[in-house]
Structure formats: C-alpha cells, structure tokens
Amino acid sequence: MKPRVPLIGEPIAVDLVNTRAIIAGDQVDMMGTPAELWEWLTRQADRLTMPTRAEQSSLDETDLAAVHEVREHTARTLAHVRLGKRPPADALRGLNEAQRAAPGIRKLSWRGGSVVSTVERPGKLGVRVAADLAEAAAELLTDPLIEALRECEERNCVMLFVATNPRRRWCSPAICGNRVRVARYYQRHKTSA
C-alpha cells in the first residue's frame, strides 16, 4: 500500500529524504514519477522556487533522475552526519555539483513598497530543482539544527525529523506514535488475558 503523499513540514532536505518509506516491509518511493515530483513541489511551493504551471508538462524522467540523485546524496550525507561521522566525499561532491549546475542569481525587485529578492536559476527544470534541493541540504548540514536530527523510533519507519522538543520520538505522533501506543496496549492486554 503506497501512501498518498509524503509527510512534509521538516526542513526541505529532510522532507526530500522522507519521500522514501518502508511500508509492509517494502521500500516505497513517493516521488517515483514526474507527476509525484510535481505534487511534492506543489506542496512545498511556499518554501521552494516553484516552476511555472507551463513547466509541469515538461517534467520528465531526466528531471526526476536529477532530483533522485540529490535525494540520494542528501540521505547518505545526513545518515553519516547524524551519527557524528564524516560524510562520503562523493555525496558532498554530488551536492556541490548539483548547486554548480544551476547557480542561483539573486534578483531584486520592487514590490508592495519594498525591495524583495528572489533566486533565479538557469537551465532545465530538473537541474534547477535539484540545485534548489542541494542548496537546502547544504543549509541544513551547516545549521546547528542538524544536531537535533533523529530517525523515527517506530521500528518499521525510516523517516527523519528534527526533534525541536527533546522528548519527540516519532516522525508523526499521529501515525507512528499512535502505532507504537496501540502495539503497547495490545501487548499489555494480550499478556494479561
């Protein structure tokens, strides 16, 4: 059973890694098609430079592959850093290359009585999205918040989250937290019967 959409709300780099899950023992890619990538980008629109509606139809497998590559580099890097280990050099190099492939140019404009800036990137859609995501990974990796990165404690879950509350143990209290509580309840009542 594939979930409809991945959880969001963590730093972008964590949300990206969390587009892969394990469900009923199988690894599931919730961003396995260009359409699912578009849906994820739409849900992240307030935090990413959103492609235009016209570009939606241009999303293809090469765009998806560029994003998947950044996701893999991000996942490998976070896995090492989370454990206090040196990340693989090729993963860091991959994140750097993704950013270099579509460097961000900060464009200033006047809007609503003040100067605002937006980042514009040249190139094909997938390369631009991959660069945005690699930059988000770089920002998280250099942020002190990285110290609070945790893996969900539900035994069948692989999701990551930032534990801003030190007592937080699950990626989603409503999903994994509830699953653990129900299992404990069942175990207590099974042994007492």
UniProtKB/TrEMBL annotation:
<dbReference type="InterPro" id="IPR010852">
    <property type="entry name" value="ABATE"/>
</dbReference>
<protein>
    <submittedName>
        <fullName>CGNR zinc finger domain-containing protein</fullName>
    </submittedName>
</protein>
<dbReference type="InterPro" id="IPR023286">
    <property type="entry name" value="ABATE_dom_sf"/>
</dbReference>
<feature type="domain" description="Zinc finger CGNR">
    <location>
        <begin position="149"/>
        <end position="189"/>
    </location>
</feature>
<dbReference type="Pfam" id="PF11706">
    <property type="entry name" value="zf-CGNR"/>
</dbReference>
<dbReference type="InterPro" id="IPR021005">
    <property type="entry name" value="Znf_CGNR"/>
</dbReference>
<dbReference type="Pfam" id="PF07336">
    <property type="entry name" value="ABATE"/>
</dbReference>
